[in-house]
Amino acid sequence: MPGYEKDSKTLTQWEYALAGGASGAMTRFLCQPFDVLKIRFQLQVEPINKSSLSSKYNAVYQALKTILIEEGIFGLWKGHNAGQLLSITYGLVQFQSFEFFTKASSQFVNLDPTSSNVHFLCGSLSGVAATMVSFPFDVAKTRFIAQGNDRLYNSMYHAFKTMIKDEGIAAFFRGLTPGILLVAPQTGAMFMVHNIFKKLLRDAGMMPNNVPTLQQNLFIGSMAGLISKTLVYPLDLSRKRLQLQGFQGRKGFGKNFNCRGMMNCIIRTVNNEGVQGLYKGLAPSILKAAVTTAFHFTGYDFICRLFLATHKYK
Fold first, then answer.
1. What is the pLDDT of residue 20?
2. Binning pLDDT at 50, 70 and 90, where does residue 6 land?
3. Does residue 250 contact residue 38 with C-beta atoms inside 8 Å?
4. Per mean pLDDT, which range of 89-98, 105-114, 139-148 is the poorest?
5. 155 to each of 40, 67, 78, 277, how far by Cα in Å?
6. At 190, phi and psi to the nearest 5?
7. Contacts of 251 (CB under 8 A, 6+ apart)
8. Do residues 177 and 196 touch, judged by C-beta distance below 8 A?
9. For 222, phi and psi rounded to 5 degrees?
10. d(CA 89, CA 133)
11. How many angstroms separate the CA atoms of 4 and 278, rounded?
């Protein structure tokens, strides 16, 4: 992890993985409502504005209020179990592989593991690896969030069993292409921006020990998440819409969106909903990205420090 260049040698790859998984689980629980709002907006074909009488959701507050009235408080945590498995798996692979790639860049390619360019490259590779491993949970999470009180899936086991029976193994990887195209630059940009802000704080004399405070970690992480998410958002929308192809459990939320692939999804969205349709759900998505990344980096940093502290007493 950036900021542990000197001390990281004392941590094992399993400790990195555990820190990443634990921070991912904590972040998922706190930020799941943002994900529910974002996905509901992304899947809505109808316009997201107050003048549209055919729209289920037309604003963040109205959507939040509607979900609470129709589905209760737990409606904001729909897909949480699948989301937790996604976050833990993603965190385990992402942070462990990032540490592996940064060390490898120094040992085998003779690159500076602290440079922003290396962080972008290693972040991209770690994001792709984490996405491929955790993607089936992402598809399941999206489908749980998409269904209302009329459930097509009753549990994770039932969801996986039904998907395999009705759609085959391919169902677990629907939307993988935009997912990888999304996560590579987004994760790379996230680690790069995180590194840049840390260097700016250090050069300004605000981080003399090369270890950010809790407040600094939250700020740096939120900026990294906000900037990286905004850059690649249309790919995120196409990924979510592709994950619902073949899913018939979205009742009472408006029209179903049908497409045949990433480019077809983007073209149909623009033709039917305008360019602004590619940015549906951007507001809750930015909030989620900022808060999620802030907590993820901060939690990971805190757990790494705990591991380092235990090593000192051994």
1. 82
2. very low
3. no
4. 105-114
5. 20, 20, 11, 31
6. -65, -50
7. 147, 148, 150
8. no
9. -65, -40
10. 7
11. 38
Separation CA 255–CA 83 (nearest Å): 25
pLDDT in tens, 160-177: 999 999 999 999 999 999
d(CA 73, CA 58): 20
**How many whole angstroms separate alpha carbon 150 and alpha carbon 153?**
9
Tokens of 244: 């619902």
User: DSSP letters along 227-285, please?
Assistant: HHHHHTHHHHHHHHHHHTTT-----SSSPPP--SSHHHHHHHHHHHH-GGGGGTTHHHH
- Euclidean distance between CA atoms 289 and 228, whole angstroms: 8
CA angle 286, 272, 176 (to 5 degrees): 55
- Residue 267 is predicted with a pLDDT of 95
Neighbouring C-alpha atoms within 13 Å toward the C-beta of 176? 16
- For residue 54 the two structure tokens come to 């055919």
Kindly report the pTM of this predicted structure. 0.72
Q: For the chain, how many residues are written?
A: 314
Residues 91 and 296: their CA atoms lie apart, in Å, by 9
What are the b/e assignments for 227-237, b being 16+ CB within 10 Å?
bbbeebbbbbb
CA distance 225 to 34: 14
| pLDDT above 70 for 314 | no
In the structure encoding, which two tokens stand for residue 201, read together? Answer: 């704080």
